[in-house]
Amino acid sequence: MPKDNKILLAKVLSEHGIKGQVKIVAYSDDPLMLEEYDLVDQNDNPIKVKYTNTNKVPVKYHNGSPIMITTLNDAKTRTEAEAQRKIEIFVSRDQLDEEEEGEYYYADLLGMDVINHEDGDKIGKVTNVLDHGAGTMILIVFDENPDKPLHLKEEFFTFKNEIFPEVDVTNNKLTIILPPVEEKKQDGKKIKKEKKEKKSKDK
């Protein structure tokens, strides 16, 4: 599967129990759909997901994303599950709904270069995208630059037009307008940028 056609939907965190189960973190609005898609791992090997907890609900959350108990490719033993550590699970983009204007998949944003709107310089990378229901947050790890120090080494920003005026998926660039220090906050898939006139947004 071509790399630019692959969307990351989940990642194996660890084995679980002795019957071939693993814990995965799902990057999806509907993690149950992982059972329905044709999936592959990072090496394009086929992956079949089957949830094993009875009610198919998250056992907990990791940085806002659900953790599910599942088996991959009908694994039966802990040894098989241990061999599946760090597997990344992908779906082809053509199996997913087409994004509307202003909507982006989690995988599109992860790893984007962050560009300073003021001078066009690259200043960091997107390393995480979270949504706890109150609004999507983008975690940026800033490049080290002693000549132009930024506020923090890493920081969360609300994903909205006033802060991120341009998202360039084709060139893997996210432009940021850095707020003044006193105005920045650290409160706190497919997501949609929050517009000024709206108090909430769809994921």
What is this entry, summarized?
The chain is mainly beta and 203 residues long. It has 2 helices and 16 strands.
Total count of domains: 2
Helix content: under 10%
**Cα-based radius of gyration, to the nearest Å:** 18 Å
Q: In percent terms, what proportion of residues is strand?
A: 35-45%
CATH topology type of the largest domain: Elongation Factor Tu (Ef-tu), domain 3
Number of strands: 16
Structure description:
The chain is mainly β. It folds into 2 domains: 3-93, Elongation Factor Tu (Ef-tu), domain 3, CATH 2.40.30; 104-192, PRC-barrel domain (SH3 type barrels). 4% of the residues lie in helices and 39% in strands. It contains 2 helices and 16 strands. It has helices at 78-82, 106-109; strands at 6-16, 21-26, 39-40, 46-47, 49-51, 60-62, 65-72, 88-92, 103-105, 113-116, 122-131, 136-142, 154-158, 166-168, 173-176, 190-192. A hairpin with a 2-residue loop joins strand 6 and strand 7 (65-72). It starts with 5 loop residues before the first strand and ends in an 11-residue tail after the last strand.
Tags for this model:
elongated, 2 helices, 203 residues, SH3 type barrels, 6-stranded mixed sheet, Elongation Factor Tu (Ef-tu), domain 3, mainly beta, disordered C terminus, 8-stranded antiparallel sheet
